[in-house]
Amino acid sequence: MTETNQAPGTPCFHCGEPVPKSADYWIRIDSDAKPACCRGCEAVAQTIIDSGNADYYRLRTDLPKTPEAALRN
Ligand SMILES: [Zn+2]
Q1: What is the CA(64)–ligand 1 centre distance, in A?
Q2: Which of 4, 9, 46, 52, by CA, is between 20 and 30 Å from 38?
């Protein structure tokens, strides 16, 4: 993985909770990898994406930032 510079408190791609520094869970979407806070979020999100429902993440608007914006900080 190349995303080793995430800031503390990066929101989980699935639930939006801050991802602990020690967490090493990743959700693969398109050609990208997003941080997850725990194995449960990682598994649930990956299941959603792998079953063809990634639009859930692309289209939702109810988190404070887009996951992409969160990763750039
Ligand atoms: Zn989570």
Answers
A1: 15
A2: 52
Instruction: Give the distance (Å) from ligand 1 centre to CA of residue 46.
Output: 12
Helix (H) / strand (E) element for 71: namely helix 67-72
Q: How far apart are CA 15 and CA 18, in angstroms?
A: 9
CB environment 4-22: b (16+ within 10 A), e (fewer):
eeeeeebbbbbebeebeee
What would the pLDDT profile of 12-65 be if each residue is shown by its tens digit?
A: 999 999 999 999 999 999 999 999 999 999 999 999 999 999 998 888 876 655
Phi, psi at residue 56, to the nearest 5°? -55, -45
CA of 44 relative to ligand 1 center, distance in Å: 9
